[in-house]
Design brief:
The chain has one domain: Acid Proteases (Cathepsin D, subunit A, domain 1, Beta Barrel). The chain is about 10% helix and about 55% strand. The chain has 2 helices and 10 strands. The strands form 2 sheets. Strands 2-3-8-4-7-6 form a 6-stranded mixed beta barrel. The chain starts with a strand and ends with a strand.
């Protein structure tokens, strides 16, 4: 079991993550979002890493309370969060609303690989890897 700490006084559960691309790696602050189907990263970071929409798997539209946001799906060479790493990981690239203060969302495409216990009062996430079938 791995333990990841977060600030229990923050309005979001924000965790550190890393993403790798052709030009290196980038450190991310991602909001844990169990309602997000995909893991999302903002385009500025993806662009800096040397990826482009031309490498994407297709265009998409994210629907939210504030409207629709165009984006695309992309496979990154490596992604790491909660103390675990995976290769050839598919993410959703799109902008988030202004003033959100995070680089993206850690969604179910990553989280479903684990059993996750959220302890908000303690500011801890307890994570066990499971075998994905």
């Amino acid at each position: 079991m791995k333990v990841t700490r977060f600030d229990p006084s923050d309005s979001l559960i924000v965790v550190r993550a890393w993403v790798w691309g052709p030009r290196g790696k980038a450190k991310l602050d991602l909001a844990l979002d169990t309602a997000a189907t995909h893991t999302h990263i903002v385009p500025d970071i993806i662009d800096e890493l040397g990826y482009s929409p031309r490498q994407g798997d297709g265009t998409t539209v994210v629907h939210s309370a504030i409207g629709e946001e165009p984006g695309y799906l992309l496979r990154v060479s490596r992604f790491q969060a909660l103390g675990f790493s995976t290769s050839d990981f598919r993410i959703h690239v799109h902008d988030l609303g202004d003033g959100v203060g995070v680089d993206g969302l850690l969604g179910l495409t990553f989280l479903r690989r684990f059993n996750l216990e959220i302890r908000p009062a303690e500011g801890r996430l307890l994570v066990d890897r499971i075998d994905v079938v």
